[in-house]
Amino acid sequence: MIFQTARNQFANRQVCVAALVCALAGAIVLQFFGNATQGYIHSRSLFYWWGSQWFDPAAETQHGLLVVLVAGWLFWRNLRIQEGTTTGRVPAGWRVPVALLGGLALHLVGYAAQQTRVSIVAFLVFFWGVLALAGGRRWGRAAVFPLGFMLLAVPVSFVDSLGFSLRLVVTDGAYALAQKLGISLVRNGTQLFSPDGRFQYDVAAACSGIRSLVALLALALLVGYIGFRSWVARAVLVAAALPYVVIGNIARVLVLVLVGEKFGQAAGSRVHEASGLVVFLVVLGLLLGTTALLRRVGFKSAERGDVSTAASPVVSVSALLRPWAVASAVVVVAIAVCLAAWRLDARPTGGLAGVQLTEDGANPAELPGFVGREWIGRSVEVSALEREVLPPDTGYARKNYVSLASLNKQVFVSVVLSGRDRTSIHRPELCLVGQGWTIEGRFRHEFQAELEAVAATVLRVEHAAVDAQNRRVQISSLFAYWFVGGEAVEPTLPGMQWRDVRDRLRHFQANRWAYVVVQSVVTAGDEAAALAHMQEIVAGTWPSIRGEMPRR
What we know:
The protein has 16 helices and twelve strands. With 552 residues, it is an alpha+beta fold.
């Protein structure tokens, strides 16, 4: 018995050392070859890239640090609950090497595709393997939900699109309820205002409910996981998060409309500062009500499981060797991943470019100086901020086309060409909001050119400005964009990203995508005229941009 206890203690020390070796190997990979993108955040470290998102207001993930702390508490709680369920460490079996080696392989896929979010998921999988190796099945079980919960701290790229859709839903809901209450209201995109000008509110991004959705989703996951044993009850709480957030934000906007109708714009603006409390109270009340209802219909609370008094497993010599076999394999694969990542970084910029290039291949070819007999192109300098933020091998070509018949008729054209780093191509919505534009709508449109029809996404955007008489005016504009690759034209960022990832993984090289923008001011609400001006410019510049054949 004494010999068995001593062997078990020795085995536990060996397992912990092997787990520490695996953790160190993974940390080296993710610290020095964790992030392949060098735009916006200049760091090779996955940990720095991820952590910096938690303090970036534009990333909508300021809750990340809190999520990580809660996940740590959940892991500790689960270990306390399972304390005493066994008197010895039970190995987690084949799942450990699968998680460790699979996590490293998934990270290499994310690195090659320049998708750091994929690498974060790979890190969570790998980290589970380390914990399961160190603590056996007990630690493995305790870590499953906390590590899954940490996915809420991962920045996602679809937040802008989802947030805009939520803004429209909230605007529609508040408008419909105000009409039912007999309030005269005019709706224009995401704006709500009274016909007599008494008040005017814009359902901005902060009122879309994105942050409320993430917070309520986290709260629903916690309440469901801690409070219920049934997966059905947990699923009901999570599924209710989205409609509850929409209801809460509709209530918030409706309160502003009611106050504005009764007391005017200034009173509504003062209430707006504290209106976030309305959302919190509404959604919290709905969540607590749903929890009480689930308990009433018979779903049981989560309880501590039965305590097992299983004896300590006898550790064989072969069992002592297994952790070191796993650790050795992890070290070898980690070295291979580092070498593969280094090779990816060392490869020169190549692949297909979907636009005509200058002789040195660094920039898109210069845009034509004239389009037809009416339009003259004036060069536009690239701002110092753009050159600082975007990767250094990003290429640019842009002109502002002015009508000789009327100086008020102008169309801006920009071509941004990526190098090896895909972050040269970014979300148009993010830049527009950062420049002070408000997105009021979007639609798909096809511009007709000599060589092909060009599918584009067109945004309706507005920007507040001050005119010559020092009056506040609203400038409306149409902002069209699309992405050009060597073999395709994509009107959306997700479509471009999918093709780019596929090409990077299939050919192991970075093709050079171009991001094309065509923008025109809408005068007197005449969108058709602005779209016609854009059509003229696209027809005149597209042959020069695209060329006859893509070039390497």
